[in-house]
Amino acid sequence: MDQSDVGNDIEKILLTSEDLGKKLDEMAARIDEDYAGRDLLLVGVLKGAVMVMADLSRRLHHPIAMDWMAVSSYGSGTKSSGVVRILKDLDTDLTGRNVLIVEDIIDSGLTLSWLVSNLRSRGPASVEIASMLRKPDAAQADVEVKYLGYDIPNEFVVGFGLDYAENYRNLPFVATLAPHVYGG
Ligand code: XMP
Ligand code: MG
């Protein structure tokens, strides 16, 4: 796959790099204010959250620690199974920590609602969520997001960390894919 193929694969750009950057500025400013004087541990959910984590954490003035988890609720396809498995757990003891989960997208919300209760059971001082995207029309579980980028329509999107079969994560924007990508 080369760059021109990627261009053909994109159907519509929903959020530009500027849109994402503007929202990241706002989220970072709020997080700095809310966590002033408190310790903060950012927990990124691999792999989709890598771009949000990198771009959000570099905008924070607040000192942070960073850790990563990998969970799986999707295969290489586009539908949630509702079954969550820990593929890689945290290295950090959460006792007494202020945890901010950093996510790329809340779709059904099943992954995050499971993750929040899992992390809450480990004795942290607090657990909150920051997510760049959310699909309100896909919600199956109630998830309270403290820091949200954008609500988007219930369509499969790629870019800014989000993949289709591990491709397109590096796109600096959020876009839908042309039907031929799925059709083979
Ligand atoms: P749920 O449904 O549990 O989904 O909220 C959470 C995880 O599913 C992935 N996901 C997507 N990945 N485009 C993607 O590339 C999408 O439109 C999409 N919707 C959900 C994502 O990894 C998320 O963390
Ligand atoms: Mg994914």
UniProtKB/TrEMBL annotation:
- CDD domains annotated for this entry? PRTases_typeI
Q: Which Gene3D superfamilies match?
A: 3.40.50.2020
**Residue ranges of domain Phosphoribosyltransferase in the record:** 16-164
Q: Does the keyword Transferase apply?
A: yes
Reported cofactor(s):
Mg(2+)
Q: Which UniProt keywords apply?
A: Cytoplasm, Glycosyltransferase, Magnesium, Metal-binding, Nucleotide-binding, Purine salvage, Transferase
Q: Which domain of life is it from?
A: Bacteria
- Reactions accelerated catalytically: GMP + diphosphate = guanine + 5-phospho-alpha-D-ribose 1-diphosphate; IMP + diphosphate = hypoxanthine + 5-phospho-alpha-D-ribose 1-diphosphate
Any single Pfam family the record assigns to this protein: Pribosyltran
Q: What is its EC number?
A: 2.4.2.8
Subcellular localization: Cytoplasm
For the keyword Transferase, the answer is yes
**InterPro entries (UniProt xref):** HGPRT, Hxn_phspho_trans, PRTase-like, PRTase_dom
Q: Quick one: signal sequence residues?
A: none
Record-stated family: Belongs to the purine/pyrimidine phosphoribosyltransferase family.
User: What is the protein named?
Assistant: Hypoxanthine phosphoribosyltransferase
